[in-house]
């Protein structure tokens, strides 16, 4: 076992023996994300570096502490990228943190989430064992897909020490267009366009303006622009600001992230940003947490308190059956409850 990983493992084994809580942390770009932050910091950054990269196979494998910028630069040199566009939050996150958080950017609705690009992982459990799940090929299914389970788990099951990711070639061409329209018109258009053979990579609406990003062959983009109309946008700055959450919307003192059916006409006062063809919406509102969550649930969605003073849990409460399943999984991987205690779910 490599020196950096051996040191992490030794700390985990010692913490498990004493039942001491550990807080797994990389670059700290998502310190705001979660319910609580109990435990001694377990810094993953010393365990870094790209282990293997096969451009012809569209697979990259890296240690958990590897900065996302290093992976981006390596892929860029071969004309490839990670399509799920993990948010940077003004910093340089580690790839382990990217997987543990499971957050995706503007292309999510067209290409999939982080979970869809994870091929395999290595996990250090509370006993210090290195468990290996998945592999480095796109067809590798045997039993329960634990690698995908780890995406979005916020480290409560163990330390994701290594990850293999599927990558894709960068699009040959990209273009953006804008339209002045209301939020309701944008929802109708976004869902209409989704049902057509158009090379739409991302959509967004804010402040009375809808943006659409096109990606693919130059001829396909030109044909799509003829169908869509709109005004060409010379800069991709809007998509970077959405990906990294530096858009003005994210400065709201109290901000909710809503996950909804894309066709839901949920347009409460305060909705300032619509993404993913309507499946993700951001609500700046002083309404009570119960009011926001009840209204969201009434149309089949969930609401997370993204920013602002906490008077409730960050994440939408789970149904009893789902909560029971989470508890069983946590106990199976971490019986002494040492990893990221309470970060995903209070008292878990």
Structure description:
The chain is an alpha+beta fold and 348 residues long. The chain has three domains: 3-169, 2-Layer Sandwich (Uridine Diphospho-n-acetylenolpyruvylglucosamine Reductase, domain 3), CATH 3.30.465.10; 171-244, Alpha-Beta Plaits (2-Layer Sandwich), CATH 3.30.70; 248-330, no CATH class. It has helices spanning 3-18, 68-76, 95-101, 108-111, 146-150, 183-194, 218-228, 237-243, 289-298, 320-333, and strands at 22-25, 40-43, 50-54, 59-63, 80-81, 118-124, 130-134, 159-166, 168-169, 173-180, 200-206, 209-216, 231-233, 255-259, 271-275, 280-284, 302-307. The chain has an eight-stranded antiparallel β-sheet. A five-stranded antiparallel β-sheet has the order 3-4-8-6-7. A two-stranded parallel sheet has the order 1-2. The chain is globular and about 65 Å long. It starts with a helix and ends in a 15-residue tail after the last helix. The mean pLDDT is 94.
Brief sketch in words of this structure:
By secondary structure, the protein is an alpha+beta fold.
Keywords, please?
348 residues; Uridine Diphospho-n-acetylenolpyruvylglucosamine Reductase, domain 3; 10 helices; 5-stranded antiparallel β-sheet; 3 domains; alpha+beta
SSE layout and pairing:
Blueprint: H1 3-18, E1 22-25, E2 40-43, E3 50-54, E4 59-63, H2 68-76, E5 80-81, H3 95-101, H4 108-111, E6 118-124, E7 130-134, H5 146-150, E8 159-166, E9 168-169, E10 173-180, H6 183-194, E11 200-206, E12 209-216, H7 218-228, E13 231-233, H8 237-243, E14 255-259, E15 271-275, E16 280-284, H9 289-298, E17 302-307, H10 320-333
Parallel strand pairs: 1-2
Antiparallel strand pairs: 3-4, 4-8, 5-9, 6-7, 6-8, 10-12, 10-13, 11-12, 11-15, 14-16, 14-17, 15-16
């Amino acid at each position: 076992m490599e020196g950096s990983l051996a040191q992490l493992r030794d700390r985990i084994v010692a913490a498990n023996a004493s039942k001491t809580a550990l807080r797994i942390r990389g670059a700290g770009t998502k310190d705001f994300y979660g319910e609580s932050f109990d435990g001694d910091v377990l810094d993953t950054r010393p365990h870094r570096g790209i282990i293997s990269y096969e451009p012809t196979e569209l697979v990259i494998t890296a240690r958990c502490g590897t900065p996302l910028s290093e992976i981006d630069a390596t892929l860029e040199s071969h004309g490839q990228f990670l399509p799920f566009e993990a948010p940077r939050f003004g910093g340089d996150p580690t790839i382990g943190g990217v997987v543990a958080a499971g957050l995706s950017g503007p292309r999510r609705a067209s290409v999939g989430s982080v979970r869809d690009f994870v091929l395999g992982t290595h996990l250090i459990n509370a006993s210090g064992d290195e468990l290996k799940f998945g592999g480095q090929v796109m067809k590798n299914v045997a039993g329960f897909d634990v690698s995908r389970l780890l995406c979005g788990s916020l480290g409560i099951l163990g330390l994701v020490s290594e990850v293999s990711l599927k990558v894709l070639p960068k699009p040959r061409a990209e273009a953006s267009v804008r339209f002045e329209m209301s939020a309701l018109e944008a929802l109708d258009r976004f869902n209409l366009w989704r049902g057509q053979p158009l090379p739409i990579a991302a959509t967004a609406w804010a402040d009375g303006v809808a943006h659409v990003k096109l990606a693919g062959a130059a001829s396909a983009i030109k044909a799509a622009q003829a169908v869509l109309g709109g005004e060409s946008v010379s800069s991709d700055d809007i998509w970077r600001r959405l990906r990294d959450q530096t858009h003005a919307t994210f400065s709201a003192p109290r901000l909710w992230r809503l996950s909804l059916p894309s066709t839901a006409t949920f347009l409460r006062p305060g909705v300032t940003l619509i993404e993913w063809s309507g499946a993700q919406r951001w609500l700046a509102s002083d309404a009570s947490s119960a009011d926001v969550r009840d209204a969201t649930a009434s149309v089949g969605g969930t609401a997370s308190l993204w920013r602002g003073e906490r008077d409730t849990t960050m994440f939408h409460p789970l149904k009893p059956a789902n909560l029971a399943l989470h508890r069983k999984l946590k106990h199976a991987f971490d019986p002494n409850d040492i990893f990221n205690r309470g970060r995903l779910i209070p008292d878990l």
